[in-house]
Amino acid sequence: MRERGSLGQFDVLADDTLIASRGGSMLKKALGGGWPDPEEVLAKIEAIQRAN
Question: pTM, whole model, 2 decimals?
Answer without folding.
Answer: 0.66
